[in-house]
Design brief:
Blueprint: E1 5-7, E2 10-14, E3 19-25, E4 28-30, E5 59-60, H1 75-79, H2 91-99, H3 111-134, E6 145-147, E7 151-154, E8 160-162, H4 169-172, H5 182-185, H6 191-207, E9 221-225, E10 234-237, H7 241-245
């Protein structure tokens, strides 16, 4: 960092990444909100931290940037941001409900795990339910499923992927042996699970309905493949119904 220049209560200095302008308080230069890494994007979510992109124009460093969530409060509020129906909702109670919803291998002992559960519902589970609800009176039956098997693979972090988005695809298509699949599933993904899921897809393609798997209706049945990351495939009525109801009127 260079000695910099003073100008009407501000102090501009040169850093390795670019110039920054802070404020002077009681003779001390104060620099807030300095970027320490590249912002997260879909291309680097699972990567190690990357240095910030250099800049040439002085960066205003007079205020802290947005704070990351540090406890349960505000996570539900964050995920619902911009959605109608948020005003007046008990977001703190919703966060507590998610934190208390841990079961089996689905730990929610920390804010990051609660956030992941909220984000999964906001982006995938609840919108999928809304489609199934809209099709209740459709001529053809609608079936809902979820995957409980958890991938042990880690990408750029110490946390396993778990039952992440798209992890069901190689099981549904029975393509665990395809090149690159183990990058998502690891080398010990259960072939029996792939055979079971693929057989169900074939059954539906042939008959348009499924045996021992009720169509989605008032009981909200969901076929859970490898429930709780076990070998059990079973229909579960309204799984995590309490959390589902938190989104009523909001999404």
């Amino acid at each position: 960092m260079s000695d910099g220049t003073w100008n009407d209560g501000t102090w501009t200095v040169e850093t390795a990444d670019g110039p920054v302008t802070g404020q002077v308080s009681d003779g001390i230069g104060v620099f807030l909100g300095l970027p320490y890494g590249t912002p997260l994007t879909p291309d680097n979510w699972f990567c190690a931290p990357l240095p910030p992109e250099p800049w040439s124009a002085p960066l205003r460093a007079s205020a802290f940037g947005p704070a990351a969530p540090r406890d349960g409060s505000g996570l539900f509020d964050l995920m619902l941001s911009g959605d109608p129906g948020l005003n007046g909702r008990d977001t703190a109670g919703a966060n507590d409900a998610y934190a208390a919803g841990a079961s089996g291998p689905y730990s929610r002992s920390g804010p990051a795990e609660v956030f992941a559960a909220v984000m999964s519902d906001r982006m995938f589970r609840i919108p999928s339910y809304r489609v199934a609800e809209a099709r209740r009176d459709a001529p053809a039956a609608t079936y809902v499923y979820e995957l409980g098997w958890r991938s042990p693979v880690t990408i750029g972090t110490d946390l396993p992927l778990g039952a992440c988005h798209v992890s069901d695809i190689p099981f549904a298509w029975d393509t665990l042996g395809a090149a690159g699949t183990s990058d998502l599933t690891g080398d010990a993904a259960p072939a029996s699970l792939a055979a079971a899921m693929h057989a169900r897809w074939i059954e539906f393609a042939r008959a348009g309905e499924l045996s021992d798997w009720p169509a989605y209706g008032s009981d909200r049945p969901v076929m859970t493949f490898a429930r709780d990351s076990t070998a059990s495939n079973e229909v579960v009525p309204d799984p995590r119904g309490g959390e589902r109801r938190l989104w009523d009127g909001a999404l």
